[in-house]
Amino acid sequence: MSPAQWDLPPELCCRPMAFVALTGLDVVYNAVHRAIWDAFCANRRADRVPISFKVLPGDHEYPKCRTKRTSYEWYIPKGILKTGWMNKHLNLVPALVVLFYELDWDEPQWKEKQSECATKVEIVRTSLQGRNTKVAVVLIQKKTPLPPGEDVMASERAAALCNACDLSGKSLFVLPHTDHLVGYIIRLENAFYEHAQTYYYTEIRRVKSHKEFLNKTTHQLLFVRHQFKTAFFSELKQDTQNALKYYRAAYSLIHELRTHETNILEIKTMAGFINYKICRLCFQHNTPLDAIAQFRKHIDLCKKKIGSAELAFEHAAWMSKQFQYFGDLFDEAIKLGLTAIQTQNPGFYYQQAAHYAQERKRLANLGYPAPDPLETPTGILDFYGQRAWRQGHQISTCFKLVSQELIIALLSNAVAQFKKYKCPRMKSRLMVQMGEEYYHTKDYAKALKLLDYVMCDYRTERWWGLLTSILGTALRCSYLMAQVKDYVSYSMELVGRASMLREDQKSRIQKNVAKVLKNEPPEAEPDCDPSAVKAAQALWNERGSQASGEDLILEVQDSVPFVQCKARFLHPSFHLDVPVQLHVFLLTDSPHPVRFSKLCVSLSNQDYNQYCVVDSLGQAPAQEDMCLVPGRTHRYSFRFVARPEDVGKKIEITGVDLMLGSENGRCIFLNWRGGGGDAASSHEALQATRSFKRRGRLPENEVDWDTVSIQASTMIISRVPRISVQLHHEPPALNNEMYCMMVTIQSHEDIVARDLKLTAGLKPGQDANLSHTTHVTLDGSKMCDDSHRALLPDIPMGDLQPQEKMEKPLSIRCSTTGPRIFLVHVAYTVDTCIEGRDIVCKCHKDETVTIETVVPFEVAVKFVSTKFEHLEHVFVDVPFLLMTDILSMSPWPLHLVTSELQLAPTMAAVDQPASQVEEVVLQTGESASECFCLTCPPVHHGTTGVASGQYVMSWKSCCSLINTQLFYLPSFGRVRESLPVKYHIQNRTAIVQEVEMSVEPSDAFMFSGLKQVRLRILPGTEQDMLYNFYPLMAGYQMLPLLNINLLRLPAVSGQLLRRFLPSRIFIKVTFNGPANSGIETSMLATFTFVS
Amino acid sequence: MMTMLGGEPFLLVSKQEQQNYPLYIRSVPSDSELKFHYTVHTSLDVVEEKVSAVGKVIVDQRELYLGLLYPTEDYKVYGYVTNSKVKFVIVVDSSNTSLRDNEIRSMFRKLHNSFTDVMCNPFYNPGDPIQSKVFDSMVSSMMVQTC
Fold this sequence. Notes:
The structure holds 2 protein chains of 2 kinds.
Chain A: H1 10-13, E1 18-23, H2 31-41, E2 51-55, H3 85-92, E3 96-102, H4 110-127, E4 134-141, H5 152-165, E5 172-176, H6 181-209, H7 220-236, H8 240-254, H9 264-284, H10 288-303, H11 312-335, H12 346-365, H13 396-420, H14 424-440, H15 444-461, H16 464-481, H17 484-495, H18 503-517, H19 530-546, E6 551-555, E7 563-569, E8 573-575, E9 580-588, E10 594-603, E11 613-615, E12 627-628, E13 634-640, E14 650-661, E15 667-673, H20 681-690, E16 713-717, E17 723-728, E18 733-734, E19 738-747, E20 753-762, H21 768-772, E21 774-777, E22 791-800, E23 805-814, E24 818-834, E25 837-854, E26 857-864, E27 880-888, E28 894-903, E29 908-909, E30 920-922, E31 927-935, E32 949-956, E33 973-974, E34 979-987, E35 993-999, E36 1005-1008, E37 1012-1017, E38 1022-1031, E39 1035-1038, E40 1042-1046, H22 1054-1058, E41 1064-1068, E42 1083-1089
Parallel strand pairs in A: 1-2, 1-3, 3-4, 4-5, 6-15, 8-16, 18-25, 33-41, 34-42
Antiparallel strand pairs in A: 7-9, 9-13, 10-11, 10-12, 10-14, 14-15, 14-16, 17-19, 19-23, 20-22, 20-24, 21-23, 24-25, 26-27, 27-31, 28-30, 28-32, 29-31, 34-38, 35-37, 35-40, 36-38, 39-41
Chain B: H1 2-5, E1 10-13, E2 22-26, H2 33-56, E3 65-71, E4 75-81, E5 87-93, H3 101-120, H4 133-146
C-alpha cells in the first residue's frame, strides 16, 4: 500500500462542472473546426459558464448504461460508492452531446446532406442508449444568416431537418463562420448550459425516485450513496446550496451505519470524502465557522473509530490526512480573501496532522503485522475504502521513510502559518519538532541547524527545562556527527547551571568533555541508535588522529556555560602614577573541578595584554590556582602601569579567554566578549540585588559571587599634582577698576617640576557677554582696553624647584557688574618612576574663583538757585548752581583724583570751574559734593530742555575710572500762576509783511494781551507779541491756539507756521506758599518768513 | 487514566523586564511533563497578544481572566493575568467536561490569592521561583479536586 492511497481522489477535489461532448469536429485537419474548438476552450474566464468540453469522435462509445432495476427487494449493496462513479459523471457520461455539421440553407444537395446528418444523430443516440443525455445539432454555415422570418427557405429546411433528426427546434443551432465567432460561441454555450442543467435536474429526480424502494435494514448503504449522488449532481448543476444540504444529510446517514471490522475503513473513507466536500462548500459560501464546526464534529466522531488495534497506525495516518486536507482548504480560503486569527489558523491543523503522522510512525514502529493487512491489488477496487484481503508483499520500510518526509513537510507548513499569525513560541516549538524529526531521519546536520536556531529563544525566555531537552537532542546530533566544537559547546551548557539534568548526567557529560580535551573519543550518548553510534565512534577516532593542536574558540557570551566569568577594574579611573588593577573572577557550577591551562584578558590597548595572563609557563602559579573548584569564586588579579599617552583615554576589556585542555591534546578557548557574563547572568545579578537574603559569612579571602559586578572599562587620568596654587585678592572687584589678583604657585614635588605653564582668566563656557566685558592682563600699570583677551593661555613660567614659590600678579578689568568665574590652570611635567618604569607625567592643577563686581559710587546731580533752593528749571541768563553728590558704595576707601565739568554749548560757567574734590578719600558710605555756578545763555529755538554737559571724574582705589552724566532742563507752568508768553515774529523777506494774528480762547487758560490784531512788519525787522497766560488746569495742556495769516502770501497757511510753535505745555500743581515772584518762565516763539 | 490526564500544570510567569520565564510549574501526570511545558510556553503567544490588546483598548481593567486561550486536540488552555502582569496558565484535559468557565475562574482566583500571600512574604524575592509549601499544598489540593 502506498501512502498515496490516503490522498483524496482528484475527481473529489476538483470543482464539478457540467460535461458537454462535442462531436463532428475535426480539430486536427480542419482550420475552421480548430478555430471553433479554440473559441470553446481557450481563455475560459470566470464569467463564462462552468462547462467542461471534450471533443469526441462521432461514433464514440459512451459507458454502457446498466439495465434499470425495477425492484430493490433482493438487492444487497456491496459498498457505498463505486470508485469510478465520480469520474464517470465528470468525464465520461456527458450531459449533452453536440453534433457539428457543415450545412448551409441553400445547399444544392440538401436531401443527401439532411439524411447524412440524421444518420450521424442516430449513431450518437444509439451509443447513449438508456441515458437521459441530450443531443443537439449545430450547423456550421459559411453565410451570415438573415434575420429570423425573412429567410423562408431556412425556416422550412430547419423544420425538415428537425423532423429528420427527431430533434426539437430548441436543439438545432446555427453557427455562421464569420468574424464574430467568439460571440456566437458564448451564446451557444449558454444554450448548452441550459440543456445540461435540465439533464442534471432529471438525474437528481431519477436518483431520488429510488428512495421509495429502499428499506432501512438492508439498504442503509444505498441511503448514503443516493444522498451523495444527489449532492454531486447538484454540484454539477452548480446548485451548491442544495449540494451542501445533501452532503450534510449523507454525512449524518453515514454515521448511522453499523461499524464493524470489515467496513470501518470504508465508512471513514467516505466520511472523509463527504466532510471534505462540506468544508469546501462552507468555505466557498464564506461561512468558515461552519466549516470549522463541521470539521470538529467530524474529528470528534471519527477519532474513536480506530478499528483493530493492529491497524491503529492506519487510523493515525487517516487522521493526519484529514487535518492536512482541512489545513489546505483553510489556507486556500485565506488566499481567496478570508482572514484568519492567531488562535484559529491553518497552522493548528497542519500541526495536528504532523502530530498524527508522528503517531502513525510510532505505532508502525511497534511492529508491523506479519501478514500485511493493507496490501491492495494493483487493480482498482470496486468501492472506495474497501480492502482486498490479500497476503503478500512487505512494504513497511518504504512506508516509514515516506512518512518521515511527510511529517517534516507538515511541520514546515505549520511553521509558515504560525509565523504569519504572530505565534513565535508555537513556531519555535514546531521547529524543535522538525529538528527532532530530522534527528530521527538521521539528517543530523539539518536537525542541528534548526535546534541551534531556536535554542536562543528558549534561552532568552529562560525556560531551562525546555532548553535542556533541546540541548540533549543537539548534543546527540553533534556526537553522532563528531562535531567537536558543537559537542563541547552543548556539553558545557548541559553541565552548567541552566541545565535541569540530574547530577549524574552532568557528571557523565563533563567526563566526556574531559575526554574530548584529551583527544579521546567521548562515550556515546544514551538513547542513540546503536548502528549510528558505531559510525560515530569511527568518526571520532578519525577526528582524534588528525586534529591535534587545533584550537577551538567557543563564544560563550550567548549561552550559559559551566564556567562563569566576571572581570572588573578595581576603580572606574586610575591615576597615571598608580598601577591599573584588574580582577577576573571565575566560578564553575559543574559537578567536578575544572582545570584550565591559561587565562588571558584582552584589552582595548593590546600592549597591556601581556600583563594580564595566567598560564603554567609564566610565573608558574600554584597548581591549585589553575583548578576551579565547583561553587567557589576564584579571583585572579592583574596589575600594569598605564602609558602616558593613554591619559584621558578609556581602557576597555574586550574579551576574556579561558583555555581548557592542553597543547598535546585539544585546546578549547572559552571566549567572553567584554567583561564576561552570559545569557543568564544579567538576570541573576538583578535578582541578587533585589534579594534580602542574608549571605553567610565567607572566609577572609573568599568572595560572594553575587556581590561581584562587572566593570569592563576604566579611565586613565593624569597624576595628582603636588603643587599648591593660591590666589590672593580682595573681592569684590569694582566696576571698571583694574582689579589685582596675585597667583602664588608653590611646589610640593620632590623633584623639579618642568615646563610650568599658567593659563589664567575668565573660565570658558560662561555667558558670551562676559568675555566681551572682561579683560585680563599681566601688566597692571596700564588700563586694559577691548584689545585685551578674557583668558590668557599657556603663559610659560619656566621650571619650579621643589618647595620653590612663584608669584604672578594678574590684572582684571570688568566693565559690567555681576559675578564671574575665573580660572587659574597650572600645568607642568615631572619624571617619575613607577614599579621600575620611568614615565613622564603631565600634571595640572586648576583653581577657580568667583569674583563679584560692584558699582564703586553713585553720583547725583541737582540744580539749585544761588540761594541753594531747589530748582526744577533754570532761566535764561539767570545764574544757578549745579551740585554733584558723590556717594561711595565701595567697601574700600575711594581716592578721588580729580573731577571736571565739561559743559555743553547751551550752558556756560560763570567763573572758571575747578575741581573741589581733588585728592579726597571717601570711606564706605561717605559722600562728597561739588558746586558749580552756571548760567544759561539765551536759547534761540524754543526747546523744552537743554543738555548741560558731562561730568568727568578720576578716581582710584588702586586704579581709575571715567564717569559721564547728562542732564536735561524742563520748562513748565503752574496752575493759577501767570505764565508770560512771548511770540517773537521776524520778517526775513525783502517785502513788508502784513500779518493778521488772533488767539483762540481755551478752556485751560485765561489770558491777557491782544486777542486779534493786524500789523505790518518791515523787511528785516521783528515784532514781539506779549501775552500773559493764566493756567487753570494741571497736566499737559493745549496752549491757546495762535492763528497767523499772511495777507500778502495767502499760500503760506497758518498750519505751516504753527509747526514752529509749541502747542502744549506742562502745568504743575501750585505750591501752597506764595508764588515766587522772582522767577519767570518765558516761552519763546520765533517765526521766520522766507520768501 | 483519564483522571490522571486531567491534572493541570500550573504556571506563573513574570512579565517584569518583558520576560516570560516560569516561576512555578506543576503537572500531573509527570510523565508527559515536557509536553505540558511546551503547551504552556506556546500558549504565551496568545496571552501576550491578549494582554497587548487590553493595553490598546481600555476594556474593563479589573477583568484579569483571559478565558480559553486556544483549544488543542487534547487540552484546553486557560489564561489569567494579574495587574502586575504575572501570568497564570491552567491546562486541562479537553474531555474533562466538569470544568466549566466558572470553575476555572474560581481556580484562578484561588491561585491569585495564594500567590499574593507568597508575594507578601518578606523573605520571598519577587522574580525567584516559588518554593512555598503553603502554595504547593494549595495547588495539590486543587489538582486533586479536579481529577
